[in-house]
Amino acid sequence: MSVTRPSPELSEYDLSDVAFITDPEAGRRWLAGPRPICRGRSFDGSQAWIVTGYEDAKQVLTDPRFTSRPPGDSHARGLRARGMPEDLVSLFDSMLLSMDRADHDRVRPLVTLAFSARRVRTMRPFIESLVGELLDAMDPAAENDLVAALADPLPIRVVSELIGVDEVHREQWLRWAQTFNGPVPPPADQLAPALRGMVEVTRDLIAQRRRRPTDDLISELIRTRDEDGGRLTDDELAALAILVIQAGHDSVRQLIALTVLTLLDRPDQLALIRSGRTTWSVALAEVMRHAAPVKHAFRRFATEPVEVGGVTVAPGEGVLVVLAAANRDPAEFPDPLVLDVTRTPNPHLGFSRGPHFCPGSTLAMTEVEIAMRELFGRFPKLRLAVAGDEVAPRFLLGVQRLPVLLD
Questions:
Q1: pLDDT tens digits for range 181-227
Q2: What is the DSSP track for 195-229?
Q3: Total-model pTM
Q4: How many CA atoms lie within 13 A of 98 on its CB side?
Q5: DSSP letters for 282-301
Q6: Is residue 62 part of a domain?
Q7: In the chain, how many domains are there?
Q8: What CATH number does residue 77 fall under?
Q9: 182-217 exposure pattern, b = at least 16 Cβ within 10 A, e = fewer
Q10: C-alpha distances in angstroms, 10 versus 6, 124, 197?
């Protein structure tokens, strides 16, 4: 079957352009834009195929002919180009997100251990207590920034509890996580110290758990590694811990902020939840689809010629799936621009799909559901303290602050 390739001219989707990343109008154009696969640029300025249609997105995310591992040593070169210190390149090159096939099959089950249903159930009382503590600390008589008061501290403390990060280092982890929030790499003088600090604390934590195991995830990973005769290298163990902490913070942080902002903007939808006509679980799935805290998946690379959406992706070419756009594809979702907290079924791609489906999705949704139920239950008069356009999320930077009044 013959296929035609679109013009090689670049589309407007340019992740290497800071103006595009921070421009909410650019994001809105792409979320409602054309669905065919087209050309664009990724963060490093390299050309990539951009996928915005739902079926094409599912194909790329699940087709084994696509890999997360870039050709040759281009991933390591990309890390260096973004300012990664040379002595840390090998460790961060071993991240699960850039693994596939044998390496991914070896490491992925260990990540699943971190977010098992049993572990999430075990953590639920801790999450409920923590949400109560954070809400208690808010001042009902004053303006409160929900990002600083709830969206930031909740996920970093939950994931620290999961991993086994002690209280002394939690504030450090939050500062490091904030350094990496958003797609724009921080300056080298901020990047290197943050990376070295993360690695140093993680390696110290691993050494402590070797000497004195507990029931946290690091101890469990060490036990699994030793019993399996080196299932993980030391670098992979450290990289896995860092990934769980980093990924477990930012996506939840954005989902909390976006859920509040979205529901305050649509009081009719919030009323459906409060009346019991829908559940928080169903409503949050719709917020994931509509507000999209995670806008795109990590790049995939074709390992052989693959036809996607009527074009042939050549071996080695990168493909960037825009999850936020696929989740608004009218071919899959009726009235996709409309927020409908009763929408079922809702096969959104907010947590990706296929072998790199987010293993922490259940824990993330548990955190946000508890936080939203308690927040809106305790403060029924919750409202924005500023005009909505002052806190509107930027396309890839999300919500940075959310001033609200409680009473």
A1: 655 667 777 777 888 888 888 889 989 998 999 888 888 888 877 66
A2: HHHHHHHHHHHHHHHHHS--SSHHHHHHHHHHHTT
A3: 0.89
A4: 21
A5: HHHHHHHHHH-SS--PPPEE
A6: yes
A7: 1
A8: 1.10.630.10
A9: bbebbeeeebeebbebbbebbbebbeebeeeeeebb
A10: 10, 47, 38
- Its domain, for residue 159, covers 18-405
CA-to-CA distance for 155 and 275, rounded, in angstroms?
28
Asked if residue 345 has a cis previous peptide bond (ω within 30° of 0), the answer is yes
Q: What percent of the chain has pLDDT over 70?
A: 87
Indicate whether 1 belongs to any domain: no
> Distances from the Cα of 338 to the Cαs of 172, 173, 285, 289, 321, in angstroms?
40, 37, 14, 11, 22
Chain centre distance of CA 245: 11
Q: 338 — phi, psi (to 5°)?
A: -95, 130
For residue 4, the tally of other CB atoms under 10 A from its CB is 7
CA dist 45 and 16 (Å) reads 5
d(CA 352, CA 272): 27
Locus of tokens 């930077």? 397
Residue 11 belongs to a domain: no
* Token couple for 249: 């913070």
Q: How far apart are the first and last CA of the chain?
A: 64
Residue 10 lies in a domain: no
Extract the tokens encoding 117.
């249903």
> What are phi and psi for residue 32, nearest 5 degrees?
-110, 10
Give the CA dihedral 327, 332, 338, 339, nearest 10 degrees.
-60
Contact between 196 and 179 under an 8 Å Cβ cutoff? The reply is no
Q: Read off the pLDDT of residues 205-218 as tens digits, 9 standing for 90 and up.
A: 989 998 999 888 88
Distances (CA, A) of 51 to 45, 69, 305: 17, 18, 16
- Do the beta carbons of residue 96 and residue 124 sit within 8 Å? no
